[in-house]
Design a protein that fits this description.
single chain, 36% helix, 4 helices, 170 residues, 24% strand, five-stranded antiparallel β-sheet, alpha+beta
């Protein structure tokens, strides 16, 4: 059993301040959706889905565009929980917004640095399912579902942004 020295609480407080200071402002959006800070656990993923659905509605995405953004957001959030934090306590900041031509969702977390594009490659569809390596397909599907994916490591935090261009059928 670990003893909490208070460092984790301080880290979450600093993370909340960082989320608020870097929420959906600036050049990415004409309009911003109020962001949220959620625990990095599977039970919180429904909050991400609801956030993306509302953002898609507010940003006037088609049902297909909203589906693509939700697919990518669900996969990215799940990977942060399962592979980033690996069951350790943590938080994910989710914010987003929209401009005339696009809608975007941004995830910020304190898990170990990880750019999802690093090991991503298209699956070899010629290899039978039973012989394919496990993993990677979800990230491939998520990042190819959106029109743009950006990753940065900012002040030790992962910042991943998913963007759908409105009316773009890439």
């Amino acid at each position: 059993m670990a003893i909490d020295s208070g460092a984790a609480s301080a880290k979450h407080t600093a993370g909340q301040e960082w989320c608020e200071a870097h929420s959906a402002a600036g050049a990415l959006a004409d309009r911003a959706a109020p962001g949220l800070r959620i625990p990095a656990d599977l039970e919180s993923l429904d909050l991400v889905a609801r956030f993306v659905l509302e953002l898609g509605r507010s940003g006037r995405l088609s049902s297909s565009e909203t589906y693509r953004l939700r697919l990518a957001a669900d996969e990215l959030a799940t990977n942060i929980v399962m592979h980033g934090y690996r069951g350790a306590p943590g938080a994910i900041c989710v914010d987003g917004g929209f401009a005339a031509d696009r809608v975007w969702v941004r995830f910020t977390d304190d898990a170990p640095a990880f750019d999802p594009r690093g090991g991503m490659k298209a699956p070899d569809l010629e290899v039978p399912l039973a012989r394919r390596a496990v993993g990677g397909l979800g990230v491939f599907l998520a990042l190819t579902a959106v029109d743009r994916f950006d990753y940065e490591l900012v002040a030790g935090r992962n910042v991943s942004t998913l963007t759908i261009r409105r009316g773009h059928h890439g």
